[in-house]
Write a structure and sequence with these properties.
Blueprint: E1 2-3, E2 9-11, E3 18-19, E4 23-24, E5 37-39, H1 49-60, H2 66-79
């Protein structure tokens, strides 16, 4: 991945890793990780991407209670006729 010159770049997945700009680097990334780098000093705040990933996996592995959801939707429509 090429990092433009002029500033150092921080790995958004591992905030401890900072790379000098103006060069091409190779980074190891898991399948779910798209290499994302943010210019040091930038106001771009991505949050904790590893926590976002963990939360997303947990949500994807949780089966919804469809009967409860159906009851809630029907009650909402009855209330908002």
């Amino acid at each position: 991945m090429y990092l433009p010159a002029g500033s150092p770049w921080r790995d958004a997945w591992n905030l401890d890793k900072v790379y000098a700009g103006g060069r091409t680097i190779t980074v190891k990334a898991d399948l779910h990780q798209m290499p994302i780098f943010v210019r040091v000093g930038s106001k771009v705040e991505l949050g904790d991407l590893n926590r976002e990933w963990t939360d997303a996996v947990a949500a994807a592995n949780t089966r919804p209670d469809l009967k409860r959801l159906d009851t809630e939707v029907k009650a909402w429509f009855e209330k908002n006729k």
